[in-house]
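We modelled the chain as a single entity of 135 amino acids. Its sequence is:
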Amino acid sequence: LNIITSGIFRQLDPLFEKDIINFDRTTGHISLNSSKLNDYVNNNPTELNDMLNQVKTNLTDFLTPYIQYNGIFDQQNKAYDQQIKSLQNMIDLQTQKVQIEIEILKNQFIKMQMLQAQLNDISSRITATFGYNNK
């Protein structure tokens, strides 16, 4: 945006040079010098017309690569879209990995509970058979 802004200001140089428009660098305010503009309209309309046509041509030439089909903005948008797709694919892959790991851990937990139940059953049988008492 800074490049575009400074480029637009460069294209307006003829109007700045003739003091038709002014720019306050501290506030960023652009103002029209109506007395200068009226002077050009009344005394030199051809030069004003030439200046405005030059500014129009310069702005068109400067902005066309940005706004045309498959221009700079389109290329940037496509690059950002590709980055978004790539990041989404990475997120999807990580989500799948996490889901697989969750399933593995669930199965291991179920197997551990079954093993614990078997060990509890064996412990109960041993206690019943041998009368083992913790006292």
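As a brief sanity check on the tokenised model: The first strand starts at residue 21 and ends at 24. The mean pLDDT is 91.
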